[in-house]
Amino acid sequence: MFELKNRLISMIDQRQVPVGMQCFTGDHTLIEVMGVTGLDYVWIDSEHSGINPRALEDTVRVADGVNLATIVRIPEPDDTTSARRALEAGAQGIVIPMVRNAEDVLRMRDALIYPPNGTRGICPAYRVAGYSLRTFGEYAAASDAGLLLIPMIETVEGLEHVEEICAINEVRIIVFAAGELSYALGEGANVNLHGSAKIQEALARVRAAARANNVVLLGGPIINPTAEGCSAALDEDIGVLCLGIDVMSFRKVCEDAVTAANTAVASSDRYARPTAPPSGLPPR
């Protein structure tokens, strides 16, 4: 029997908390480091990066090799081709940005489920199906049964329809995108869940919709993860932690290195250092 194991769903069903990081570089070495250090999943971004979601086979192979589940954010909410190719490469979930309503998610579901219940094209000659015509029917059934769609609530319209979005069976995880939604609500730049009354009200509505439909929130202290920040996220019903973006995490490493060097040199009367550029990170 053909079996597709979804590590994220298995962990959620066992009340374990998956921990992962967003990857904007697509760098295979960094992905291997994520796996060997104990992360459970990698979020491959193709909305804001140059990663091609239609050519992910080698990237997913690397993640598989270090026991990382792969989820892929596609460029647009209606980019069904990129979503299909990500699944064919072996991604275990599709992150859908800028979702406006349940129809956006249902159109994506229809494109990713095989006939007669959907419209996904039949082909056995790709990686996740085992390049096998003999077992393709079993793969198709397993793929349909395990389809994981992860909508992002980051538009006003999406927030207004969050209850219908969470009620879709294939939605087991949802993202509350505080930063994007803050702009949409006229609040400006703000990635803090508690940055304004509007964001708190929006979060409360998303939490209620998720809880009512047994959907888990994905989020957490993505810029400066700490134990306290993770505890606060868990208290907000965030059951899948996303604790970094590779390029921003590397920026933090570089800033900390320069700060350490400049602090040491400042205490010396023999050496000097140029002034460091302003930090690109929020205050800790």
Overall description:
The chain is an alpha/beta fold and 284 residues long. It has one domain (7-246): TIM Barrel, CATH 3.20.20. It contains twelve helices and eight strands. It has helices spanning 7-13, 28-36, 57-65, 80-89, 102-112, 136-145, 156-160, 162-166, 178-184, 197-212, 227-235, 246-266; strands at 19-23, 41-45, 69-73, 93-96, 149-153, 173-176, 216-219, 238-245. It has an eight-stranded parallel beta barrel, surrounded by eight helices. β7, α11 (227-235) and β8 (238-245) form a beta-alpha-beta unit. α2 (28-36) packs parallel to α3 and α4 (80-89) packs across α5. The protein is globular.
What's the gist of this structure?
By secondary structure, the chain is of the alpha/beta class. The protein is 42% helix and 14% strand.
Structural class from helices and strands? Answer: alpha/beta
CATH top level label: Alpha Beta
Structural domain tally: 1
Mean pLDDT: 94
Q: Give the termini separation.
A: 51 Å
- Give the H and E element order: HEHEHEHEHHEHHEHHEHEH
Tag the structure with descriptive keywords:
single chain, about 280 residues, alpha/beta, TIM Barrel, 8-stranded parallel beta barrel, 12 helices, globular
Question: How are the secondary structure elements laid out?
Answer:
Elements: H1 7-13, E1 19-23, H2 28-36, E2 41-45, H3 57-65, E3 69-73, H4 80-89, E4 93-96, H5 102-112, H6 136-145, E5 149-153, H7 156-160, H8 162-166, E6 173-176, H9 178-184, H10 197-212, E7 216-219, H11 227-235, E8 238-245, H12 246-266
Parallel strand pairs: 1-2, 1-8, 2-3, 3-4, 4-5, 5-6, 6-7, 7-8
Helix pairs in contact: 2-3, 4-5
